[in-house]
Amino acid sequence: MVKIFLVEDESTIREMLRDSVPWKQHGFDFVGEAGDGEMALPMLRQQKPDVLITDIRMPFMDGLELSKQVLREFPKMKIVILSGYDDFEYARQAIGIGVERYLLKPITKSALLDALGEIKEKIEAEQAQQTYLERFRQETQEYEQYTRRRFLEQVMEGRLTVHQIYNRAEEMGIDLVAESYAIALFSLPQEGDGQAPSRASEAREAIMEFFLKYPEYLISRWNLNTYMVLVKGPAHRMEQDCQRCVDFVRRQFEAMGAEQDWHIAMGAPTARLSTLADSYREVSRLWAYRHILPHRHILTARTVDFLAGTGGNSGLDQLDPEKVAPGILRSVLHSGEIAELPSFVEQYVLNVEEALDSNAFCQFLMLSVRFSAASFLQKLDIPQGELLDRLSCSSMIGRTVSQSELRDYIYEVLRQAMELRDNASTKQGRSLLKKAAAYIDQHYTEEKLSLNQVAQDINISANYLSAIFSQELGKTFTEYVTGKRMELARELLRTTDKRSGEVAFAVGYRDPHYFSFLFKKTQGCTPKEYRAGGKAQ
Q: How far, in Å, are 37, 116, 472 from residue 178 at the CA level?
């Protein structure tokens, strides 16, 4: 129902319009009336009607002044002005402020209903368009997150100039103008790591909702279980905003009892976009300590450097055995990224610097890395021989090595092991993607097809399936399904005489208007234009 509100100072006319027009029969809901603009305004704020019908000449506040005030507060409200004066100047002013119709008294019931019927159609079309835009926005939200991640990756890698950063950000609707910036990386518990799926999901949703709520935070998924937050805002408030970010993540995971599986690294603020790449390298260094200091969930320059104890003691006898615990290597092999290996190796070696004068210790460290890598790969059904065949540094075992050579050796072994791990994961991912694609091929014309439905069929999490689509295909699940539907729609429009609504139904859309909206949005022309010989994008 389209809501109608009437403002008319002549009570006889007001009551006649109110009581004689069959409002509901024509799809309208009469929600209120007032004798002048001053009385009407607070009632309009409360009722928020779709259409305001108002006389132009009234005491206290006339119709033109009321219309100006209403359109400032409610720009989508449609206004119909009734006037007993055939005066061009009134009409000109009414049109100038955005009034929808200007009708002369005496107004007949049929004339009023005709005008309101046209306005009703316009309102319903605007509402449908808004509904379609909102639905499209929701369906493309995953893609927007993917493109945002790619953009931020380029910023953090230093591949864009400041000018390019601002231009790209403006194109994507991202506000990056600020006095100060800081970067945080945080991890979420991996599915299957002992956390109840519902509790992990609740924490994930709460965290996303928190960061999306505040404009000073720009959050992006970094990989399967890691997120990056760019904190931006006034310099005097940066410390407070960074602490609020850390505190919220901490509270969420402490509440769910995630004692071992979450970390957050927070870097120091910087005043320039051009130095974000340097800031990201520093945060990556801190992030590497989640493997070295697994019980330290909050990683900052102050807490990491203090706890890591970079120097201070001397000699092998003073070395803390926890600094070479096997769990450190298992952690980086299991969940680390190749891109963070240089930071990890640098900090891992620096962490045991006091013992590096002992060649026996260096040999122990190299063997420990090699056997940890081999053991890890064995659990993935990858033979040790595949690792050894890749290594060019095996000859370093048994001879005196420098710190630089030790770093190179550790980096080489871990990198090769992680490449084998990623190859196996990619192979598995492609196998799962193949199964997902086969399921989609059979069901993409079903309106209710969803990411969760496909993930359930192939027995993986929806979160993981979403990541596979982004990483392997460079597109989101929604993009993939929409692409297949549009491909079939084009074929049906070319080769059959089905009406647009029938084509919509055949490709998985029960709402033909939304199908037409989506076709034009993705193909660059309407279904009718395409059938008439137009070219899709």
A: 44, 48, 35
